[in-house]
Amino acid sequence: MKIELIDSNQAAAIDKYTIDILKVPSLLLMEEAAKTAFNEIIKDFKEKDKFFITAAAGNNGADALAVARMLYLAGYTNLDILLLGSKFTKQNETQQEMLKALGLTIYKDLEEIKNLNKDYDCIIDGLFGVGLKRDIEGKYKELIDYINSLSEPKPYVIALDLPSGLDASTSKIYGTCIKADKTICFGYEKIGLYCGKGPSYAGEIVSTPIGLNDSQKLKRIAGAKEGQSPKDAKTPAVDAKSPKDAKTSAVDAHTLAINEFSCLQTIGNIKAVFGNILKDRDSESEEIRKTLDSRVKAGNKGSYGKATIIAGSSGIGGAVILSAKTAARMGLGMVKALTHFSNREALLTSLPECLIDVYENECPIDTLKAALDFADIVVLGPGLSMNEAATKLCKDTLELINKPIIIDADALNIIARDNLFDCLRAAADRLEGRIVLTPHLKEMERLTGIAVKDIKADPVGVAMEFSSKYHVICCLKDAKTVVTDAKRAYINQAGNDGMATAGSGDVLTGVLAGIFSYKFSDPLLAAITGVNIHAVAGDMAAKNLSEEMMLSGDIIKYVDEALKER
Ligand SMILES: NC(=O)C1=CN([C@@H]2O[C@H](COP(=O)(O)OP(=O)(O)OC[C@H]3O[C@@H](n4cnc5c(N)ncnc54)[C@H](O)[C@@H]3O)[C@@H](O)[C@H]2O)[C@@H](O)CC1
Ligand SMILES: Nc1ncnc2c1ncn2[C@@H]1O[C@H](COP(=O)(O)OP(=O)(O)O)[C@@H](O)[C@H]1O
Ligand SMILES: [K+]
């Protein structure tokens, strides 16, 4: 399954459109959001259960106050409400009034709650949602840290829209963050929930549709056919009473579309991918299946693609084996390894099907040229080391390459160390997007100079910017790998901790080599397919062997099964 994700600007624009243009009163929208949250909450709790409801001054807080009212009226009367802040939004004030009219106490100080000395069954987090933009300090931080520290009995923590402290657009943590067991997300789901540290704070994510959830409609509002500017947008006449009014309203709406709703054009450009991408019934997965099914019948070994794996060095022999073995298992007709001579025997023993070219001190240019000429697809980097021979191989390959290439591991480190970015960019322009870089976070730090913790705080943004700068497809590897061609991004949700074992990345290069041997018209779809299939195979390995026991080599055994699941 794929879901479209939005950032905080888009969330605000959707709300604004619904309220200002579609004339849905904001209280009504809030009531809808709170009602869906209420319905979700009461699934798990009984009337006698003890609730602690937290709210701050914005509309996320107003949501929490509305939920408190609904719980109370439904008989969940054992609830304590804490409201922090001053400068309340209008809706927040209205919600407070309704609670006061019911005779409910609204506490203003955490100490008062602590003095009640209750073991809460459930805590509702309504401090901050998409409006959070700065570090959390003082009493807010104290409250969040207090909630996170509660244990035995640990209350069940439910966050409204977002766990407070998490940035909706990036997954940055603003100093501290609620550790939720469940997040009830209003309307579209937010990017920050699905990448970086987001998943470890969000817990289970439940999405509740409110307002406008039709992305095609929202794009039309913003005037978007792909590539069309909002200026060309046809915005509907709004609230028109006479033909004259209609014209004025259309102009007003048009201006709004340009100024405030143009960010809606890009809804759908960032997606989270769950489970096996081959099983989805949407047009993207249709295209992936069609491409994979196009493997010719009754071909010969030349028909099914040839890969050259430039990997391994003296002392590092496993990477080339894992990459080549995976590529061979992906259905490639022939796999050739270009590696240091010391790896020859081990490689032949574990993969007798592999063709091997070796070098000793440095790889002669003619050997490299022949290996590149042989291939339809090239892998460069696993276990290559960063010695002189590897450096020359990396530079020469970047200069010569004229077919799809997967660049990984030490090749990335060499590009970073020796500042080979011009060379990379030149290769990327020659290859028109058929160049994939697969850095993990540390390699990305070396490539960009951005510290790992900052990459982790905005993996989608960092990957997209890198991809845009060098015209490459970037697979930024992590527990939730981001795959992007600068305009669009997929965040892969499959995979497991068992894959955090040496060699998993080498296996990924082999999977990508196999996938790129098919004639994908959209290289980004090829890349996300490779990343996803690798992760799904990893999940199958974990299921059959356990996360602790599985080795990266075990992932290879399940790639075929993952590919068949469609
Ligand atoms: N517009 C609407 O009517 C709807 C809004 N909804 C809710 O409204 C939320 C967005 O509401 P808002 O835009 O009011 O924003 P939030 O309530 O998410 O946060 C903004 C509030 O928190 C304060 N704040 C921000 N950062 C702070 C910090 N570091 N320390 C202390 N205070 C801080 C601000 O001063 C403001 O009062 C959504 O996440 C969603 O929960 C939903 O009810 C759907 C409908
Ligand atoms: N916790 C995890 N959940 C899901 N996938 C993971 C996890 N840890 C690692 N992976 C995946 O395993 C692979 C590890 O690659 P890499 O870090 O290059 O390892 P190596 O260099 O040892 O081959 C990546 O594809 C990454 O996305
Ligand atoms: K929240």
UniProtKB/TrEMBL annotation:
Domain of life (superkingdom): Bacteria
Annotated (6S)-NADPHX binding sites: 59-63, 129-135, 140, 161, 319, 383, 440, 506
Cofactor note as given: Binds 1 potassium ion per subunit.
Entry-linked PROSITE patterns: YJEF_C_2, YJEF_C_3, YJEF_N
InterPro entries on file: Carbohydrate_kinase_pred_CS, CARKD, Nnr, Ribokinase-like, YjeF_N_dom, YjeF_N_dom_sf
Coiled-coil annotated residue ranges, if any: none
CDD domains per UniProt: YXKO-related
Alphabetized UniProt keyword annotations: ATP-binding, Isomerase, Lyase, Metal-binding, Multifunctional enzyme, NAD, NADP, Nucleotide-binding, Potassium
Gene Ontology molecular function, alphabetical: ADP-dependent NAD(P)H-hydrate dehydratase activity; ATP binding; metal ion binding; NAD(P)HX epimerase activity
Binding site for K(+): N60, D125, S164
UniProt keyword Magnesium present: no
Keyword Cell wall biogenesis/degradation applies: no
BP-aspect Gene Ontology terms: metabolite repair; nicotinamide nucleotide metabolic process
Span of domain YjeF N-terminal: 11-218
Binding site for AMP: K477, D478, A479, K480, T481, G505
Pfam families: Carb_kinase (PF01256), YjeF_N (PF03853)
EC number assigned by the record: 4.2.1.136, 5.1.99.6
Catalyzed reaction equations: (6S)-NADPHX + ADP = AMP + phosphate + NADPH + H(+); (6R)-NADHX = (6S)-NADHX; (6R)-NADPHX = (6S)-NADPHX; (6S)-NADHX + ADP = AMP + phosphate + NADH + H(+)
Annotated ranges, domain YjeF C-terminal: 284-566
Cofactor(s) recorded in Swiss-Prot or TrEMBL: K(+); Mg(2+)
Region (Disordered) residue spans: 223-244
Function (record text): Bifunctional enzyme that catalyzes the epimerization of the S- and R-forms of NAD(P)HX and the dehydration of the S-form of NAD(P)HX at the expense of ADP, which is converted to AMP. This allows the repair of both epimers of NAD(P)HX, a damaged form of NAD(P)H that is a result of enzymatic or heat-dependent hydration.
Family: In the C-terminal section; belongs to the NnrD/CARKD family. Belongs to the NnrE/AIBP family.
PANTHER family xrefs: ATP-DEPENDENT (S)-NAD(P)H-HYDRATE DEHYDRATASE, ATP-DEPENDENT (S)-NAD(P)H-HYDRATE DEHYDRATASE FAMILY MEMBER
Protein name: Bifunctional NAD(P)H-hydrate repair enzyme
Provenance organism: Lachnospira multipara
